[in-house]
Amino acid sequence: MIRRLFTLLLLLCSVSVAMAADYQYNRDINYRTDDDYAIKMCRLDIAYLEGAKDLPVVVWFHGGGLTGGKKEIPQQLLDGKCIVVGVGYRFSPKVSVSQIIDDAACAVAWVIANIERYGGCMENIYLSGHSAGGYLVSMLGLDASRLKRYGYDANSLKGVVPFSGQAITHFEERRARGIANTRPVVDSLSPLYHVRADAAPFLMITGDRELEMLGRYEENAYMLRVFKMVGHPDATLYELDGYGHNMCEPAYPLLQRFIRRQESKK
């Protein structure tokens, strides 16, 4: 299902209550210690509620083209109804894009194994992130081998919500191979390559197709088409009219609504 959302309607209908919850933080937790660079970069922060139990968990990956950025916990998601984990990871060109995806898988595996200590439910894990982060969560949700390496089933995720994520092979991988941004590639480092009917529910969100980066809307629209072709039962694409690539603010309420919908199915 493709939905175009008009800015005024979205702003009227999505009121954040993030200030209502009293969150505690545990920061700079190492989830990977292979070497000095991993120790420096592979850290995560957890925003949790004292005394909570069995809350859904959002694992959030920041953007930055896989070459920069820093871990973050979006304050708009702190609504008192979920635990939020912000993940940092290594960057290209010091490591390959495939290694960065593996960092993301390692982080999610750490969260699944440890989140109950923070009041989260290991069976209610949602992956989300913006731009490069959206690409990473799409890869984890669709290339099942990534989490399988750590003993977890990608199909057990409750949902995957990429914000303006690449659906084709990431442009940083193409740069490393000497391929232009305008030349699309779909290979094993592309979420599109791994689309399958039994993947977790997907909510894809992009900015306006005329304002987005490098045809990002069209990539996601094609991925939605492939989801339908393979018979996936729960994939949706939202296009946020009037917003460019930095479209997170109006997208957060859509992620929260998606979580409420999934949780209501219990």
Summary tags:
single chain, 266 residues, alpha/beta, Rossmann fold, 9-stranded mixed sheet, 8 helices, globular
Notes on the protein architecture:
This protein is an alpha/beta fold. The chain has helices at residues 7-13, 36-41, 97-114, 132-142, 145-148, 171-176, 216-230, 248-263; strands at 2-5, 24-30, 43-48, 55-61, 83-87, 120-130, 159-163, 202-207, 235-240. Helix 3 (97-114) packs across helix 4. The protein is globular, with a radius of gyration of 17 Å.
C-alpha termini separation? 23 Å
**Would you count the extended β strands for me?**
9
Strand order of the largest sheet: 1-9-8-7-6-4-5-3-2
Topology pattern, helix = H, strand = E: EHEHEEEHEHHEHEHEH
CATH superfamily: Alpha/Beta hydrolase fold, catalytic domain
**Total count of helical runs of at least 4 residues:** 8
Biggest beta sheet summary: 9 strands, mixed
In terms of topology, how is this protein built?
Blueprint: E1 2-5, H1 7-13, E2 24-30, H2 36-41, E3 43-48, E4 55-61, E5 83-87, H3 97-114, E6 120-130, H4 132-142, H5 145-148, E7 159-163, H6 171-176, E8 202-207, H7 216-230, E9 235-240, H8 248-263
Parallel strand pairs: 1-9, 4-5, 4-6, 6-7, 7-8, 8-9
Antiparallel strand pairs: 2-3, 3-5
Helix pairs in contact: 3-4
